[in-house]
Specification:
Blueprint (H helix, E strand, L loop, with lengths): L7 E3 L2 E3 L8 E4 L3 E4 L7 H11 L7 E5 L5 H4 L2 H8 L2 E5 L3 H5 L9 H13 L10 E3 L4 E2 L2 E5 L8 E5 L4 E5 L3 E2 L4 E2 L9 H12 L5 E4 L9 H11 L2
Parallel strand pairs: 4-5, 5-6, 6-7, 11-14
Antiparallel strand pairs: 1-2, 2-3, 3-4, 8-9, 9-10, 10-11, 12-13
Helix pairs in contact: 6-7
The chain binds zinc ion (2 copies).
Length: 231
């Protein structure tokens, strides 16, 4: 699949086109990837690095996963193999990717469908993460903010230099409005809403979510509005 269209959101931060969930690249001394999309996307991610950014796989030094779900971790094993990058995830989600804990079954009709689809098409091998994150850690210049609810170890990542917040699946921007995490994939909705309030207290300009499109201005105000609406 050709991948030659640049999707630079702010200088040095790209979204790789056509990867679902969203996969972001931060270009600093080394490259950092945030999330890796559903399985079968690694060739497209590597093509973007090569064709658009003129980089080699080995330039990727860190891969940060916002949580353990397959639409965020689907290509991490292949990308780690291709790059040699160190993989980071919050300590509370680590046991799900290493296979020590079973990935929970999903609820509802769509959840059941996803369970079956997951078993058939969307498998990823278990792996041992290299870095276990905790709230307040700094990784690749980003601040890790623990925002449990969608999963126990969901995180948001804040980049102080650009005032970008990477929100994983805690909140997303649809192009029209902010939404919370999908209820059928969120076992602890109350916890997630507490996490939304935690994020709403921060000051950021740009919201880059795990699904949906970039919100490029006034992001923290919009998130605060959303947080007030769920009181
Ligand atoms: Zn998720
Ligand atoms: Zn997702």
């Amino acid at each position: 699949m050709p991948s030659s269209v640049t999707m630079e959101i702010v200088p040095g931060i790209h979204q790789i086109d056509g990867i679902n969930g969203n996969c972001y690249v931060i270009i600093r001394d080394g490259l950092t990837l945030i999330d890796t999309g559903l399985p079968h996307g690694s060739a497209q991610i590597l093509a973007y690095l090569r064709n658009v950014l003129q980089k080699n796989p080995s330039d990727v030094t860190t891969i940060i996963l916002t949580h353990f779900h397959i639409d965020h971790t689907g290509n991490v094993v292949e990308l780690k193999k291709a790059s040699g990058a160190r993989v980071a995830i919050h300590e509370a989600d680590a046991d799900y990717v290493s296979g020590k804990k079973a990935r929970p079954s999903l609820k509802g009709a769509r959840g059941l469908l996803m369970n079956v689809m997951g078993r058939l098409f969307f498998r990823t091998p278990d792996f041992q993460p290299d870095i276990l994150l905790a709230d307040g850690d700094t990784i690749a210049g980003l601040t890790c903010i623990h925002t449990p609810g969608h999963t126990p170890g969901s995180i948001c990542l804040f980049d102080p230099g650009t005032k970008v917040l990477f929100s994983g699946d805690l909140i997303r921007y649809t192009g029209v409005k902010i939404e919370g995490p999908p209820p059928q994939f969120t076992p602890d909705m109350r916890g997630a809403m507490q996490s939304v309030k935690k994020i709403a207290a921060l000051d950021f300009g740009i919201l880059l979510s795990g699904h949906g499109v970039p919100l490029k201005a006034g992001a923290s105000e919009k998130v605060r509005e959303f947080a007030r609406s769920i009181q």
